[in-house]
Amino acid sequence: MAKKVGVSEATVSRVLNGKPGVSDATRAAVLTALDVLGYERPTQLRGERARLVGLVLPELGNPIFPALAEVVGGALAQRGFTPVLCTRTAGGLSESDYVEMLLEQQVSGVVFAGGHYAEADAPHEHYLRLLEIGLPVVLVNAASDNLDFPRVSTDDAVAVEQAFGHLVSLGHERLGIVLGPEDHIPSRRKLAAITTAAEKAGLADVAVEHAMFSLEGGQAVTNRLIRMGVTGIICASDPLALGAIRAVRRMGMSVPEDVSVVGYDDSNFMNCTNPPLTTVRQPIEAIGRAAVTLLVNQIDGAQVTAEELLYEPELVVRGSTAPARVRIGV
């Protein structure tokens, strides 16, 4: 490669190792030759020209993801990086496709949120490739145990304990929980937490339903919970909670008079719903900024632990929960 660029091997070595003493023009020529010859740049040189960082999200329909994108994007811009937003859509590019595209763009690193890493049965090969090449990566929220990346998460156990304790304090004894798919790791954590909480409280088993993370998913499974006589429902996302409220109404009942509903996220406009939604707030600002700090530290060559950083959520009580009352029939 030194011959192709017309410089010495020592100069190429200085460029590849990020050493000083090389002009900008020579450094650019060496990096261009590296790209043309099909070699991967050393980790510390990826994205040097544009300082790009990938931000991979599963969707934008749930308001929590645009909120996270705003925090992460703003924090990256403050550090001199440009975020590249990648959102999975039905029939569009897969998460693996986006990883390939980002690598072609020589990104400096990637932040993933709500991706396949949180699904035990999903393909993980593209993550393993990123581990192999040493690209700086941060995962937001729980991940499969075989993915040894830095992670920042809301504490799922604390979130469930807060929601459960609130409903029990209101006299609810027949509780249900609406979670994501069975292989969804944050949902597994929530399930373990509510099982433990119910045992400690001496309550009968909590009714458990799994659904896709959507309003329609929440509505479909809530119909079953209501027929089981549940008076309080904890949901693993705000859209699931809104679906649960719609199901209660379509069965001729009211929230919170007949059924109390608690969401999770405290995404935008949850204080404007009818009734305003009681929900567990994720600390998105703190999580997003922590994710960027962990990523930039890796890009700068600092050692970053792969231990998960857990952030405590906050219960926000609004109008969708009320004291339990005895129901006769459904």
Account of the protein in words:
With about 325 residues, the chain is α/β, with parallel strands linked by helices. The chain folds into three domains: about 1-40, lambda repressor-like DNA-binding domains (434 Repressor (Amino-terminal Domain), Orthogonal Bundle); about 50-155 and about 285-310, Response regulator (Rossmann fold); about 155-280, Rossmann fold. About 40% of the residues lie in helices and about 15% in strands. The chain has eleven helices and twelve strands. It has a six-stranded parallel beta sheet with strand order 2-1-3-4-5-11, with helices on both faces. A six-stranded mixed beta sheet has the order 7-6-8-9-10-12, sandwiched between helices. Strand 3, helix 6 (about 125-135) and strand 4 form a beta-alpha-beta unit. Helix 4 packs across helix 11. The longest helix is centred in the middle third of the chain and has 17 residues, at about 185-200. The radius of gyration is 24 Å and the shape is elongated. The termini are far apart. About 45% of the residues are buried. The model has no long low-confidence stretch (mean pLDDT about 90).
CATH homologous superfamily designation of the largest domain: Response regulator
How many DSSP E strands? Answer: 12
Unreliable stretches: none
- How much of the sequence lies in strands comes to 15-25%
Report strand order across the widest sheet. 2-1-3-4-5-11
Mean pLDDT figure? 90
